[in-house]
Amino acid sequence: MPKKIFLSHSAHRDPTARPALDQLEEKLKQRGGEFQVLLDHSTLKLAEDWRSAINVWCGMCDAAILLVTPDAMVAPYCDYEWSILGYRKATTPMFTIVPVYLLGATPEQSRGKPNQISEIQGVQFATIEQAWPRIEDLLGNIAATDSPTRTQAQLIASLIRRVINDPGSDLLKAALAKVNLQLGTWEPLQDPWERFALQMMGLGLTQAAPALMQIRWAFQNDKTAWNDILEMVAGSWVDDRSVQRLAFRSAGDCSARSVALNASAAPVARPYVVKASGRPPSDTWSTASAPDTAADLDQLKANIASSLARALHLDATASPELLAKKLKTRENIRQPVVVYLPTRSLDAAWLMELRRAFEFVTFFLLAGSDKPSLTNVEWMDPQLPDHFEESVWSDYDDTKNDCALP
Quick one: pLDDT at residue 51? Predict the structure, then answer.
């Protein structure tokens, strides 16, 4: 199977990089089908769901070539892409990234930035022709690696195949005809429904809705599967580095099972949990929500205990011993349990006590616009921009309701 190579660039902003981009794309395509080029030929606009598109590109590729130019170093989209790709490299060393420095750009100019691209072995030549032998060498040992984005695409495809039999791809073609895809030269995957899933995830739910509506009728007898598909497409704006951090924390040292996000509501945090679980939303990790306020720490503990009991299908007044036994069982079968907890009135001492009281729980802290000083808590990156939370309600939630089965 061809290895999927993502080309990251800022040629739309800086046309001087276009010849190098075109030449590099052509060099890759000349390798007799060895590589599959993933390249954005459109211009992402801030008003569009660019997070979803970038997450798909960065999450499904087997390797990435970064055209590092002076403009790319300051382009927000490139920084976002490089941060995600850099995290994949940090957590999966076999993942291949090849930075190609052009037009006067040097590793020293990007040194010290959070994306850590300057620390990856790169190529620095005046032209692609000169750089190509070295690029070929660095691409010589590509190993396919999994990612949360790829897993979700496979889940969506499996749910569709379970319901739809479309041997001639007529329904698939009719659905794709309803949207103007802006994903560039995406070569067909072996599984056409997986390709469809990746395209829908790249568009985001609002833009993908016309295509999804073309297949909705087939799910009349499986509303759970349909709702799962909508929710996974709707949550594609969540990038892989955050969900990998959540997954790592939820399976690691119990004293460090705390993450935080600058959101105020649990539904905004839920896509992180769904994607980290690697399961359909209807079968994701058990979650509970703690109330916004509590008079004291004992009341907060009681509130969390009753919420956890309901989430784990126990009576709300279940004994502490029974709840602890249930949580231990989930730990043994490696199914994390997450509690959404607002940080209002929460301090480091309270959080430490909660960690002791609920040993096997992962606390997902909702900080809103604040960033309280809490120890041993990993913050989800990137920080959500202003008013992003409201856009989830106005765009995604409304679209999900419009697409829901009657």
Answer: 83
- For residue 234, name the pLDDT band (cuts at 50, 70, 90): very high
**Secondary structure of the chain: what % helix, strand, coil (to 5)?**
50, 10, 40
Smallest CA-to-CA distance from 16 within 131, 132, 104, 103 is with: 103
Residue 169 binned pLDDT confidence (cut-offs 50, 70, 90): confident
How far are the Cα atoms of 16, 120, 329, 359, 404 from residue 56, in angstroms, in the given order?
26, 22, 35, 35, 24
Helix (H, G, I), strand (E, B) or coil at 98: strand
Contact 156, 278 (CB under 8 A): no
- Containing H/E element for 96? strand 96-101
CA distance linking residue 89 with residue 96, whole number of Å: 7
| Contact call for residues 341 and 363 (beta carbons, < 8 A) | yes
Beta strands 337-342; 361-366: pairing state: parallel
Report the candidate in 114, 76, 83 with the shortest Cα–Cα distance to residue 97: 83
Decide if 38 contacts 5 (C-beta within 8 A). Answer: yes
pTM equals 0.89
d(CA 304, CA 176): 45
Q: How confident is the model at residue 186 (pLDDT cuts 50, 70, 90)?
A: very low
Task: Give SS3 for 186.
Answer: coil
Under 8 Å between Cβ of 251 and 336: yes
Strand partners, 345: none
pLDDT value of residue 187: 47
Q: What is the pLDDT of residue 287?
A: 97
Tally of residues, the chain: 406
Buried-exposed string 170-184: b where 16+ CB fall within 10 A, e elsewhere = ebbeebbeebeebbe
CA distance linking residue 312 with residue 339, whole number of Å: 12
* CA atoms of 325 and 329, how far apart (whole Å): 6
Residue 58 and residue 81: Cα distance in Å, rounded?
Answer: 7
**How far is the C-alpha of 232 from the C-alpha of 235, rounded, in Å?**
5
